[in-house]
Amino acid sequence: MLYRNSDELESKHFSRRSSDYAWQLFLAGLGILALNIPLRSYVHFRALLIALTYVSSRLAPPGSQTSFFGLITFPLIYLPYMLVGMDLLMGGPSAAAVSVSGAVVGHLWWWGVFDTGALRAWGTAPAWLRAWFGETGAGAGGAAGAANVGGGVHVVPPRRVREEAVAATAGGHSWGSGRRLGDS
Q1: Mapping DSSP to helix (H, G, I), strand (E, B) and coil, where does residue 152 land?
Q2: Torsion over CA: 104, 56, 19, 43 (sign)
Q3: 74 forms bridges with which residues in the sheet?
Q4: Is the dihedral of CA 26, 27, 30, 35 positive or negative?
Q5: Contact at 8 Å (CB) between 17 and 138?
């Protein structure tokens, strides 16, 4: 779930602005740590998951639905609250408090950067981080000219790989004569 939400945010909403995404993740991590000091918690994975889920659910198209364990279908915007409720049931009030800190950071992130833009200047990565990611002079809005140069992962869809393999063998794979069930 952490990977899916993070990948969706980086590929859709931070397209060609990986440095901005990394910077905002760093700031979200600092916010989560600051909010959890009074709680004396040592593991903050769940809070980060809730923050990312909150942002991605708020940025999802209106009316998006999700299914919880295939049993209950509800609007995607309520998913972070459902996860906090599950933490309350499974981990008690202390686990729910850590999750609420993630929801607070996620709300500030969504509200400040995407909804009102009040914190957009804070959400823009510094020049040294942009240079490190190989992005050339893009503004906070992801202006033209921002490109990830020489990095990333090149993904080949599985179907194309199979089609190329079949085309290369020009007749498919020889599986042998085989045996039928029940033959001795």
Answers
A1: coil
A2: positive
A3: 66
A4: negative
A5: yes
Q: Kindly state the tokens that stand for 45.
A: 């994975």
Give dist(CA 106, CA 57) in Å, integer: 10
Which segment, 34-43, 114-123, 153-162, is predicted with the most confidence on average? 34-43
The pLDDT > 90 percentage for the chain reads: 39
Among 61-65, 106-110, 123-127, the range of highest mean pLDDT: 106-110
In order of 12, 21, 92, 137, 142, the CA distances from 130 in angstroms are 18, 11, 41, 8, 12
User: Which has more pLDDT, 151 or 2?
Assistant: 2
51-55-61 Cα angle (round to 5): 150
Report pTM: 0.70
Token readout for 6 is 């993070």
Q: Which amino acid appears at position 130 of this protein?
A: R
Unique residue bearing structure tokens 């959890």:
36
